[in-house]
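Lecture notes, unit on protein representations.

Consider one protein chain, 91 amino acids long.
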Amino acid sequence: MIEALMGLAIGMYFAVDMALVLEVLPDRLNSGKDLGVFNIANALPQSLSPAVGAWLLGTLGHNTDFTPLLVVAAVSALLGAAITMLIRSVR
């Protein structure tokens, strides 16, 4: 039951996310390029995070200490939130 609720919630989130992205595109006639950039922005962190996390855990965490990994994750989240707050309007 909880999996169905989680699936419904993430489906609604992605639908609203895509609707907002399509609403703020600068040029509706050339939206494919902009949606490609949106896709890269979504896929690139998911592709790089495992490698960066493994490197952090292996080198700075000495394979058992997750503190460097968690610190980098927290700093990344805060930096992303701060940069997002700087967005004032759509061009």
